[in-house]
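Hi,

I'm pasting everything inline rather than attaching a file, because the server keeps stripping attachments. The sequence lines come first, and each chain or strand is labelled.
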Amino acid sequence: MSRTLLSHCCTWAAVAATLGVAATVLVPCQAAEPLTAKQLRRQRQQQRQGTGLPEAVTTAPPATIMAVAPLDRGSRPAVQRAAAEIDRLLAASWQERGVKASPRLHDAQFLRRIYLELGGRIPSYDEARRFLASKVRTRRADLIDDLLESPDYVSHFYNYWADVLRLQERPQKKLIFEPYLWYVKHAIATNLPYDTWVHAMLAADGGLWENPAVGFQLRDEGMPLPYVDNTVRVFLGTQIGCAQCHDHPFDDWTQHQFYELAAFLSGTRMRANSSGRVNAVGKVRPGDGERNLLMEARQQLRKPIAFARFVQANTTAVSFHERPLKLPHDYQYKDAEPLSVVSPHVLWGEVPSAARDADRREQFASWLTAPDNRQFARTIANRMWKKVMGVGLVEPVDDFQPGNPPSHPELLEHLTDEMLRLDFDLREFVRILVSTDTYQRRAVVHDPASGTPFRFTGPALRRMTAEQLWDSILTLVARNQWAAQRPTAADIAEAASIDVDKITFDAAYDQFEAFLADYAPSRRMRQLQQTVGYRGQLLVRASELPAPLPLGHFLRQFGQSDREAIEGSRTVATVPQILAMFNGPITHSMLEKGSVISDNVSAHLPREAVDVIFLSVLTHPPSVEDRRLAHEEVLTAETPAAGLGNVVWALLNTREFIFIQ
Amino acid sequence: MFEHAAHDNPISRRLMIGRMARAALGVTVVDALADPLASAQAATAPKTGDVSVIFLMMRGAMSHLDTFDPKPGREEQGETKAIQTKTPGVLFGEHLPKLAGMADRLAVLRGMTTETGAHEQGTYLMRTSYTQLNSIVHPSMGSWTLHVKGKQSRDLPGYVLVGNGNEHPGAGFLDASLTPVPIADPKLGLENTRLPAYLSERQFQRRLSLADRIDRDFRQRYAGPQIAAYDQMYKDATRLLGSVDLQAFDISKEPEAVRGRYGETTFGQGCLLARRLVESGVRCVEVEFNKWDMHQDIFEDLPEHVGTLDTAMAALLDDLAASGLLANTLVVLATEFGRTPKINQNAGRDHHPAVFSCVLAGAGIQGGVVHGSSDERGFHPDDDAVTVADFNTTIAVAAGLPHEQEFSAPNGRPFKIGGGGTPIRKVLVEGRL
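And the predicted assembly:
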């Protein structure tokens, strides 16, 4: 098609129509041999009749996606003062080191960064246009506040905590964990103070239906010592795990200290019900109701195991009944005898006086989360600093020890003070960090292997997390990104809860089957495929997808955690990632008719369409040179629509798209 | 509208693609058909003396008592019985009948010992020979091997990991091109390698070239190891597209009976994929088997998972031996640590770094040998304790890597392949050391 023809005859509607057709053809070809013309025609026909994008994602999102706690807009001056103080501390350290601040971000760069930072996705075309057109002096602060009140914020921080807390839907086959996953999301949505939240999880009693906070303790069910290790690592940034087996090789922790801390939690039971009995070694035996159900199941069912697990899920409950803890039989140090009883002692400081008469687990929870326990505040301050700036003041964030001092000790103590001043309001803390002048500077390349400490002259250059990438692509595709959400604790309780002491076998079995129909992970996947499925992918937010995802999923390819290791996610480059960006279904989804970007492009004249694509994908208008290149592509491609498709594809396959500058 | 590319003259098209790609990426691309001889060469077996490595990594920590170091008659042995092997006087666990029948090919190290009982750190140590640090990532043994020996195939990667790449140290401080290519599911192989039917190679190159030009400023501004790693992966991925050697990743090309012999398990099919890849000139393949963390009801799970290992590894060794490749292929069976001889109150075994077992076979390895032993209950090494560094240094020797040479990391610190351990003479064929 010649230039003249395009400018004179070709209306955009026609181009858009061809784009639609072009898009439906974008299917990875399965056949190894080149297709005959006839085969090709048939294939095209099939593809045109194919499902395309599911209707649920191309329609408007629900009016309310989820309730998010409102932010105190009145505290903005205080936020800005607090941000300025952090900038002052950093500026002093730059001067001392003779380094210069990174250049300030333009509005467009800030816009992209802040959406990814707080909302976990790039801004949509409309959101970008609106912000960049704004002349309001407070537009950056306004946007920060708006984002912190959005479902995007909840979704993104849920992904963060899901990585830290190893959130899975079935950590064991007998544990139905959706209520706990919802609880974590809910704690973020309601902005529950962090110390309250952690205390609730560490001291929670009961079953998952009525008190989903017990999930934290149940995650390590059957592994009481690793539980102590994991808890201290996550919340106190301290690794005492080595001391489970022997004195820590290069830290001060002894095996005896490990056991002294574990002694607080000895007697935490994970199975209990009204009629359950406890045997001599403290193991809970099933009660009569449970035993009867299981006996009938064995008689009546060919494969009773799944039903038995469902019953067990109902009798799984956390309770605490203090029991003495003994040292291991092969304890090798002189300070105590093997198998001697250990008395509980905290690692540092003391149990707060208010909790001294409480049970030992409560003492542990109170000590760990107390304001006096500065390490608790310091750890979360450093975590949130890293979340925002890309590098912790202590790295890794869970290895505080004398041999690993903070890069900026004064700043870290100041941030700890701030965390305490804010009474562990994490959202307010993050609001302060992103309001700093330092945060709103261009990213700085950091190479940890170089041995040079990071100076925080701006945030570190980072690749998007797998979830940020997924949700960003979803932003280009789905008008409704919330067509499915994870079930609430109430949903699950209603579907799964049975009273094992009262229910008949038949009634229990019926409920088991009904539960499976709605919530068995495989069946739920199948249901979701029907509503939000597109070529094997579920087009909903990463936070709402099954967990963990299979290893071959786009999110896993880009480094999402298996949710077995604490903070197991990675952002390392691999070949399959690139192949997925080249040819995968997710890349193609945005070229489908009805995708957000396709609709936005269709609504514009060809000359403007290139600008729409740049703003949609990279959140800025093209440079003069880039616009020329893109126009040339559109005009010289086989059709303008194909050329526009090529521009979209090209922008997705830039480093600029996957890295956050 | 896209089909007209198919009418292009293929020769001129290839020439143009080559020019475009070189201009855009500094790489030679794409169409393996352009040079059928080159790709046929790449698909033949590696040269004699040119060692490949297959590393079978038992994630979660393999129980030594239930596999290669049984203690019949002891309370600690639990329900796993011991069976005779082809090597007189050497017993294996009962779920390893096939490997027991080829014990004359295996060198078993029963005195392995390490200090860490944490999965992540233990696995890292086993893969790199160095303790995990905050400041630097050490290269895995596979990346060292590739670094020293180089690739054998033009288009195929030099190093493939069948499993989860997240916890893998990969190339560490070495060049990103030495990073293993992770394969999530051996049955699916390497996905998304075929361009859509409508998209000609020429259009594909147009797209790449456009992306490259638009992205130039960004890449310059943020130049550094992260961007460089992605640049490298784009080059590698582009080189792979359209290569006929990609068939190496497709285990459906194997006869049904062959696939069956490896077992219809992910690990079994992973071993089959490893064999195909090594046959096609991939230098190193690691296959993960992540089922070993048996804290509860271990005797319920052992028959299945040990059986999976037995079937898969035996088929792999058989096939490599039959084709003669075993002489040039080092097969390593490793794990992060052992499991407690004492059975816990949940009828499981917990983490036990003090002593565990690993196995070597193939290139450079003396079969029918047991080196070291654990004490009568399997708690500690009795004699000839072998550290992870000793083990990896032995691998380096068997693979013909310079284990005494010092390499410098970017921070100036010196490192040795294998971690500067002492190679174990007894398990190496004469003249290797």
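The first strand of chain A starts at residue 206 and ends at 207.

If the labels don't parse on your end, tell me and I'll reformat.
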